[in-house]
Design goal:
447 residues; alpha+beta; Uridine Diphospho-n-acetylenolpyruvylglucosamine Reductase, domain 2; Alpha-Beta Plaits; five-stranded antiparallel β-sheet; 16 helices
Length: 447
Amino acid sequence: MLATLQERMGAKVVTDPAVLEAHGRDRNYPQGRPPQAVVFAESVADVQEALRWVRENGVAVIPYGAGSSFEGQLTPLGPALSLDLSRMKRILSVRPEDFLVEVEPGLTREELNAALAEAGLFFPVDPGANATLGGMASTNASGTTTVRYGGMRHNIAEIDVVLASGELLTLGRPVRKTSSGYDLKDLFIGSAGTLGIITRLVLRVYPLPASVHTLRVFFPGLREASQASYRVMASGLPVARLELLDELSIGFINRDLGRDYPEKPALFVEFHSSNVQAGAEEARLAEQLMREAGALDIATASSPEEREAQWEARHNFYWAIVRAYPGRIYYGTDTAVPLARITELVMYAQQLLTEMSLPGCIVGHVGDGNFHTMIPIQRDQWEQAEEYSLRLTRRALDLGGTASGEHGIGLVKKRFMREEHGAAVEWMRQIKSLFDPQNLLNPGKIF
């Protein structure tokens, strides 16, 4: 079967064992399974050709970007083709007058922002990893800046998708609002490649803020830090990032990066303001609020270099864990709850780690109600970590929350779909069958 594909697509079809192994797993799912081949698509026509072959041969296809996802989205459950879109990475147009940029899916967010800087613009969605924009759309990624700018769904105006049939659709419009027809665009965002393959995106971009003020604030305990996060959100200050790190997380960062941060629960906070004078006053009010909330220590990162170092520390957290516990599985939870319940769930997560004797850290985007517990486990601890996730997620659902704030469902979280969505899951299945009647697009994920 592969011979036919190789005849049609030549050197774009790769069967090297090392390449196959890398494309058969993501960051945290314990099992991997190499695909039969990897197709490095360079155009929409390549995507359509690969889909023609999978239809003819009844083989699954899994879209691949940077491989930075969690939850088992990339793991094949049977014979599969990996469709790598990382070579489709052109910036097709920049429209500063409309605050829009048109890109291919393999472009990474860091590559995009480097190109936008000359125009005084930036794309705000920042999940930490240098993920591809198509991959970020496929999981509806968000991250540290969601509290002000929203996640991927909020920042995508238009997409092109290739369906399992090979048909190319353009969904959405490059406008700020529309009331025209069903919103099919948002249906594909977050679908993890189970409904179609995204081949083009029109993204919303923003002017670089005139004033940026960044704080590191340390508290006596996790409860005080999480309560302070709610007070910041209730203050009306222009919060752009609001990140919680527990004392263990800070310790890993210190040892990995050679920092000397106080090893106490912390909030890393950033405010984006429209002018320098307003920013200075907002910074003063923020520091006052933090002290009233019980802060032990407040450090200001005033220069761009200091700010970059602070967010490097936050983004480096995952790799600090990996380097501290080499060779383990890094099990992550991804619960989100209404803002008023965030302290309750954070404290439950910490209590549960102690109760179950698991070596986990708590970090997260508490400004939007989302946080993660990262647990480095041995392979024989997978069931214990699953039990932890089960109990934490059920508590989040009881509080009106969700099983996945930003990572997606994949294989790991699909057992919570019925509890969260009830009868709507059957309608989701029908939508899947409508767009993918042969069940070829990343099958076995979400449901």
